[in-house]
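Subject: Sanity check before I submit

Could someone independently write out the structure tokens for this chain? I want to compare against mine line by line before I put it in a report. The sequence has 62 residues.
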Amino acid sequence: MLDPKLLEILACPVCRNTVVPDDDHSWLYCHTCSVRYRVDGDIPIMLPDEAEKVAPTDQVKE
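---
Independent answer below. Compare away.
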């Protein structure tokens, strides 16, 4: 699980908006860009080239 203090400062590298974790903290979702960033061993991989597009209906709710 990601540290709550880390989640407070993380932002999407493209739009700079807040990212939201899924229930098991394996993905961070950016609602603005409709992408998700994976979390590998509690380390967020926040590289634009590593982001996966997701449909708005597949995103985690805040």
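---
OP: Matches mine. For the report I'm noting this point. The chain has a mean pLDDT of 92.
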